[in-house]
Amino acid sequence: MRPAQLLRVLDREFVSAAEGHHTPVMLWGPPGVGKSQMVAHIASRHRAPVIDIRLSQMEPSDLRGIPFRVEGRVDWAVPSILPDAERHGSAGVLFLDEITSAPPAVSAAAYQLILDRRLGDYEVPAHWAIFAAGNRQGDRGVTYSMPAPLANRFSHFEVDVHLDDWVGWAYANGIDERVIAFLRFRPELLFDFDPAHNPVAFPSPRSWEFAHRGLRKFEDHPELLQGTLQACVGPAAGIELHAFVSSLDQMPDLDAIVNGDQVLVPKEIDLQYAVAAALVGRAIRARDGDNWSVVIGNILSYARRFPQREMGVMLVSDLHRAIGGALFEVPAFADWAQAVADVMLYE
Question: What is the pTM for the complete model shown?
Fold first, then answer.
């Protein structure tokens, strides 16, 4: 399932914890596709705490607690890492990350916690959702086969990689537009992991964020930039990204475009992707300005000039992902939509 859909599932499961209909959710996927970030996003959206328990780093007693003697009987000290309504809040997320990397004895200790929402005398607060995540056995991570009794305690979702969803996230989180443009140009490189070769660095949604950081840190050190990008996303993808970024000195004048001047669309496809991504970034940064509507209108006018109208549609689609429904309120949007109506209907 694509990330945008999974976010809706997780959001509904979080809300349903207060309604008594919550089912623990297990997210499956290869490394670097954003499983943990999706859980963190849902908690942040509801301003709720996340207790992240890495079962792979625990012993069974870490969950069950420590026994101690009280007047001739044995009682248990509840681990402080487990959710407590008084200390952590009445609602939140108990996130069992790396659950498939936990030894069988540890995962067995989690059975009751996940299904019955209790462990001995301890009980998970009523409004807390339980989410888990882990890699599949073919992903070359440290994994154990999930026991059937544990698997039967979850609803299971496979996390797919989807470029449009990643692009929406990237614009919202300030990822360098050059990285976004490159992945629009080379979409197959958003995630390229071959477990048979067990690479150290490889392209993934997570490592493209690293590449963004690398660009910001080393773009003024050209002798280090290519090696840094290769260290983030792997040798081949790093070289391609570096070549793409290096060619952008041929970009048209973006200031002239947002000012409404007549600027030619570059003939090179890679530069067209770069211009489209850069213009979305300009729109985001102009959102609080007095002439925001004019800037958007000029970008929409430029989008109509692309020789391949699908490129203009992609630009405006990304613009909508970045700024939302406010795009429809710009007077120029109606003219643009009319001009590409046949393409939109075809899509």
Answer: 0.84
